[in-house]
Amino acid sequence: MSLPSHAMPHQRSVFERFPFIPALGILAVLLLLNGIAEPNSMSFGAITGLTKTYLALMFLAVAQSLVVFSSDIDLSVGAILSLVNVVVVVLIERLGGGADAVLLSCLVGVLVGTLAGVFNGFVVVGLRLQPIVATFATGIVFTGLALWVLPVAGMPVPQSFWRTYGGRICDIPFVFYVVAALGLLIWLTVRTKYIIQLMAVGDNRLAAYQSGLPVTRIRIKAFALCGMLSAVAALCIIGDTASGDPVVGNAMTLYSVAAVVLGGTALSGGSGSMLGSAIGALIIGLINSFVFFAGVSSEWQNFAQGVAVLVALMAGVLITRRISK
Amino acid sequence: MPRLRLEGVCKRYGATVALGRGDLSLMPGEVHVLMGSNGSGKSTLSKIIAGSVRPDEGVIECDGSIVTIPSPRAARDLGIAVFYQELSLAAHRSVVENICLPGLGHARGLFRNRAEMTAAAEPFIEPFESVLGEGFGLDVPVGRLRADQRQLVEIMKTLAARPDILIFDEPTSALDRAQVECFMAVLRKLKADGKSIIFISHRMDEIFEIGDRVTIIRDGETVRTSVLADTTMEEILRTMTGEEATGPAAPAVSAAVKTPQRPTVKLKVSNLVAPGVNNVSFEVAAGEILGFGGLHGQGQSAALRALFGAAQSRSGDIEVGTTRLTGNSPRASIRNGLAYVSGDRARDGVIEGRSILENTVPIYALKNHLFVASPRSLGAKAQQALEQLQTKYQTLFHPINSLSGGNQQKVVVSRWLMAPPEVMLLDDPTKGIDIASKAELFRVLRELAAAGMAILLYSSEDAELLENSDRVLVFNNGRTVRELVGDERTRYHLYHAAYEAA
Amino acid sequence: MSGLSTSIADLARTPLVVALGLILALLVLGELLSPGFASASQIMRLLIVASILGVVAAGQNLVILGGREGIDLSVGGVVSLSAVIAGNMMQGSDAGIIPAILACLATGAFFGLLNGLGVTLLRIPPLIMTLGMLGVLQGLLVVVRSGIPSGLAAPGLARFVTQPFLFGVPGMIWLWGAIGVLMALLLRRTLFGYRVYAIGSNETAARMAGVPADLIRVSLFVFSGMFAAVAGFCIIGYSGSSFSNVGAQYMLASIIAVVLGGTPLSGGKGGYTGTMAGAVLLILLQSILTTLNIEEAGRQFAFGATLLVLMLFYGRGKALRG
Question: Can you give the residue range of the structural domain that contains A287?
C-alpha cells in the first residue's frame, strides 16, 4: 500500500527552512559582480553608503511582507512613510528641536504609522474591500494628510538627527546598529506564535477559521504592524535626507512589493521570509549600483536596471514555486 | 445527563433543505455513529455543532444548558473539536505547527517554543508512531505529506485540542488497515476516559467495531437512534434506505442493451489511473447508460473528470468509438466527441453572471470555429436546444443567475445538445435541482441514448441512479468493487457493496 | 408596486447608473460652485482629458475582465514610451503620422505580448510581471528620450486631438466613441468577447467548455499594450511635445476608472461602457476638486475618501461563516 518515497526527507528541506537562500545567492552574486566591476564599491564606506540609502526600503519590504503573508497587500506603505516623515519633521520643529523633542516626535511618528495601518486593516478586513484598490485609496488619503501637514518639501531636521544617522558609535556606523536591530526584530518575530497563525491564515483562510483562529484580528494586526514598520522606514528616510517631503515614499511602494517577491515570498500568502524581503531590498540596491559600476552608459542604466529586476522577479517566482512543490 | 443534545436543528440554503430536523443526544463515554445515505445531512449536522454553519432553527444544549455556537472558536471553548472531511490544515506549516495551531492563541506568552510545541504534539503523534509511513516528520510541511498522512495529522490536530466532544467526519477514508487499527485504539482510550465522540464513516466494519449507538438520518431528518449491539447491519441499511433487502428491483429502463445483436462499443476504458482513481476499466455500448455508484467521493467523479481531461494527470487507455483519445485537456476531449456535465454547476458549468445565450453556445462555437457571434442565428439554434429540455427562461439575454438551479443545469446540458457528442459523462448532474427538471433531463437523456449515444451517469441520489442505469459499477476507494446488473440494482445491494459489507 | 420599487432599487445599484448619476451631480455641483464649469467648451475639454484615460482604461478593462488577478501595471510605461516614440518619429510633420502610429502599436503589442507570455507560460502573477515590465519600460524611456532630444507632434495630430473635427466635436472624442463602439462589439458580438467573460467569470467552467484560456489571456495583454500605445500617441497631440514620464499617472487611474465603471478586480463582470463613465467621473472629480480652490492636501484627501466611499457600492467580499 505504501508508496515509494525516495525523495522525501524526514525534515523540512533547507530551502523550506530558509526560504531566503535563493535571494541570498542572488545577493552574493551581485556583491561579487559589483566587486569585479569596481573594487571600490566593496569598500567599507561604499557599503555603508548603500545601506544608508536602502535601509528605508529594507524596513518597508519587511513591513509589506507581513501583510503579504496573510495573502493581502498594502499599496499605501509609501504614503504612510511620507505621512510619518512629515509628521515627525514638523513635530520636531514645533517642539523646538531638542533631543527629547526628537525622541518624542519619533514615537508619535511610529504611533501615526501604526494607526494608519489599523485604518487599512479596518478598510480591507472590516469592510471586506479588495486590498489592492482599497489601500491605493487609503494611500491617497494619507498623501492628502501628509500634504496638509507639510505642503512642500523642505523644513530641515536638527543636525543631531542626521548626524546620528550618518555617524558612528564606537567606530561602527550607526546604520549598522539599525540593521542589527532589524535583524533582531526579524529574528524575534519569526519566533512568535503570531507569525505561525498569520501564515496559517494566508495559507487557507477558511481552514484557519475552522481551526478556531481569530482570522479578522490576525489580519488587522498584520496591517497595523506593517504601518508601524513603514513608520520606522520613514525615520530612516529622514536620517538620510535630513528634511521633510510629503511625497518622498510614494515611489517606494512598488519597490517594496518587488523586494518581497525577490525575497522568496509568494504573493498568494502562507509562506515566505521577512529576512528575504530585507535581502530583496538590498538586491534592488545592488542591481542599481552594479549597473552604475559596470560602465553601462548613463542612458542605458535605467533600462538595464529594469531588465535585471524583471528577470530577478521572474526567477524569484519560479524558484519559490519550485521549492514549495 | 447527555453531554450534548440537539433538538429540531434545521439548516436551509435558499430553497434546498440541507438538514430538515436534526435530533441527537450524545452521552459521555460513547461513540455515537451518524449514518445516512448521500446528502442526507450528516456533514451539515456536524458543521453546525462545529460552529462553522449557522443553524436556522433548533436548540443546542451543552451539559444541560442551552448554548449558541457562533464560531469554531466558540465551539472550541465549549470543548468541541472537529475532524473536517476536507481537512483544515495549512499546507506550508509543519506537522507540529498544524497540530498545535488551534491552541496557540490560548497559550500564554508571545513566543513559540519549538521544544514545548513538539512536546505538546508528541503525545498525539505517538499512538500512530508505527504507522506514520515514509516521509513523515515533525518538521515536514503538511503539503508534502501523502493523503493518508495528512489525514492522520488532522486526527492528531483534533485530539490535541483535548476536547470533551469530538466529531470525526470520515476520518479513515484514506487510511490503510493498520492506521485504522491505531485510530480505533485511540478512540477506545478516549471512550474509556469518558469523552463523547460523533463518528461518521462509510466502513460498516469500523462502525460495528467501535460504535455504541447509531443515529440514522434519512433525507435530512434523524429517523432513529438505536444501540448498535442490539441491531444488525441489515436493519440499519433498511432504515437508512427505507427499503427491504429483497425489495423490487428498479424498473428496467433502456431497451438498447436488450437488443440481441452485439452492441457497438462507444467508450472503452482500460486501466485508468488518475488522482482518486485506482486502475479502473470498463466499456460502454452505444445506447447504454452505465451508472457509477457508491458513497460520495469514492472515485466516481474523479474517474469522469479524468476521462474528460480535467484531472492533473491521467494514465490508461481511452478509446472513443475507434479513435484513441490523446491529449489530457477538455478541449481535446470535446474534439474527440466527449461531453461532461458536472453537478457542481457553480464550479464547472455555469459562467456566472453571463447571459443564457453565452452559456449555451461555447461548444457549438468551438466545433464550428465561429468568430462573430450573431445573436439571431446563434439564438435560434440555442433556443432549439433549450426547448428540447423544456427550459424555462424569459429571454436568451437574461443572465443565467436569473434561472432556478434546475433550469441553469438545463442550460449547461443544452450546451452539449447544440453539437451532440458521442459519449456523455454525467457527474451527479441533478445535484440540488427540482424534481420536474430532473424528470425532464432524464427523459432527454434516454432519448439521446436511444439514438445511440453512450452515457456514463454518476448520481448521489440512489433512486435516480438505479432507475436510470442499465448497469451500475459500485466504487470504493477509487476502485470498482462490484457490478450490479438486473435485479441486483437495489439500494440495499448498493449500500451493501458501498459499505464493504460483502 | 413593490416589484417596481425593487427594480428601481436594483437599477440604482448598477455601477453604470451610479457613475452616470454621480457625473450629473458633480456637473451640477461644479456649476453651482463655479458658474461656467458645466459649459459646453468646458465639458469638451474635460472629455478630451477623459478620453485619453479612457483609451488606456480600455486595455486595462480587458485584462481585468479576463480574471485570475489580471491587472496591467505597465500601461503607464507604454503610454510614456509611445508618446516619446511618436514625438520623435513625427518631428512636427504630418508625413510622420502613419509610421508613428504603426511604431507605437507595434511597441505596445510587443510589450503586451511579453506580459501575456510571462503570465500564462511561466505563470508569473500579473501584478509582478507587469510591475517588472514597468521598470523595463521606464528604463527604455530614458534610452529613447536621450537618443533624440525631443519630439514634436504633427500639426494634423494636434488638430485632431484638440480642435473641433466633426459637428464641433474634436476628433479625439470621436475616436474614443469609436473605441467604445468597437469594444462593445468585441465584447458582445464576438465569440472572443464571450470567451473573455467566460475565463474571467469562471475559468474552470470555461476550460470545461473548451475555451483556450491561455491564448485569450495573452491576447488581452496585447490589446492592453496597444490601447496604451494609442493613448500615448494621442497625448503628444494634446500636449504638443513629449515630456518626462507622462504616462505614470495613468497606471492606477486606469484601474480606478475600471473599478468605478463596475468591473471588479476579480473580473468576468462589467464592461467598457461603465469604464468610460468611470473615466469621466474620475476626471470630473479631480477637476471639481481643482475648481473648489482648496489646497492640494484637501484635494487628495477628498479624492481618496470619495474613492473609498464609492468602493462600498461595489462588490464586497464574502463572510467566512456559512
Answer: 41-324
Asked whether the beta carbons of B459 and B294 are under 8 A apart, the reply is no
Percent helix, strand, coil in chain A, to 5, is 75, 5, 20
| Percentage above 70 pLDDT, chain C | 90
Closest-CA residue to B53 (of A206, A217, A126): A206
User: Whose CA is closest to C52, among C80, C19, C15?
Assistant: C80
Could you give the number of structural domains in chain A?
A: 1
Decide if A260 is inside a domain: yes
The beta-carbon contacts of C243-247 under 8 Å, at least 24 apart in sequence, are C244/C80, C244/C145, C245/C76, C245/C80, C245/C138, C245/C141, C246/C79, C246/C80, C246/C83, C247/C56, C247/C75, C247/C76, C247/C77, C247/C78, C247/C79, C247/C80, C247/C81, C247/C83
Residue with cell 491521467: B314
Answer whether B141 touches A (CB < 8 Å).
yes
Chain A residue whose CA is closest to B88: A207
Specify if A111 maps to a domain: yes
| pLDDT tens sequence across B247-281 | 444 444 444 444 445 678 888 998 999 888 888 99
Range of the structural domain that residue C118 is part of: 54-275
Q: Which amino acid is at A142?
A: F
- The residue among C65, C208, C314 with the most chain B CBs within 10 A of its CB, best to mutate, is C208
CA separation for the pair B377, B395 (Å, rounded):
15
Q: Can you give the CATH number for the domain in which A236 is found?
A: 1.10.3470
Chain A residues touching residue B72 (CB < 8 angstroms):
209-212
Q: Quick one: chain B helix, strand, coil %, rounded to 5? A: 40, 25, 35
C27 is a domain residue: no
| Residue A12 forms part of a structural domain | no
Q: Are B139 and A3 in contact (CB < 8 Å)?
A: no
B471-476 and B479-485 beta bridge pairing = antiparallel
What is the β-pairing status of strands B196-200 and B31-36? parallel
Q: Is residue C81 part of a domain?
A: yes
Angle, vertex CA A243, rays to CA A237 and CA A246, nearest 5: 80
Structure-block grid coordinates of residue A250:
510614494
pLDDT one-digit tens code per residue, A234-263: 999 998 888 888 888 888 998 999 999 999
Q: Does the pLDDT at position C229 exceed 50?
A: yes
Q: How many CB pairs under 8 A join A and C?
A: 155
Question: In whole angstroms, what is the distance from residue B324 CA to residue B164 CA?
Answer: 56
Whether residue C122 lies inside any domain: the answer is yes
Is C45 a member of any domain? no
Q: Where are the alpha helices (DSSP H) in chain C?
A: 2-12, 15-33, 40-65, 75-90, 97-120, 126-147, 155-162, 171-189, 191-201, 203-208, 213-239, 250-260, 272-291, 296-313
Q: In this structure, what is the dihedral angle of CA atoms A194, A195, A201, A207, given to the nearest 10 degrees? A: -80
Contact B347 C204 (CB under 8 A): yes
In a domain, A13, yes or no: no
B261-268, long-range: CB within 8 Å, 24+ apart, which pairs?
Answer: B263/B287, B263/B288, B265/B319, B266/B320, B266/B321, B266/B422, B266/B423, B266/B452, B266/B453, B266/B454, B267/B318, B267/B319, B267/B320, B267/B422, B267/B423, B267/B454, B267/B456, B268/B317, B268/B318, B268/B319
The pLDDT > 70 percentage for chain B reads 93
CB contact A90 to C (< 8 Å): no
The number of distinct structural domains making up chain C is 1
What's the one-letter identity of residue C227?
F
Q: Strand B196-200: give its sheet, edge to edge.
A: B65-67, B57-62, B4-13, B16-26, B221-227, B213-218, B31-36, B196-200, B165-169, B80-83
The per-residue pLDDT for A283 is 92
Taking an 8 Å cut-off on Cβ atoms, the answer to whether A314 and C136 are in contact is no
- Distance between CA atoms of B233 and B240, rounded to whole angstroms? 10
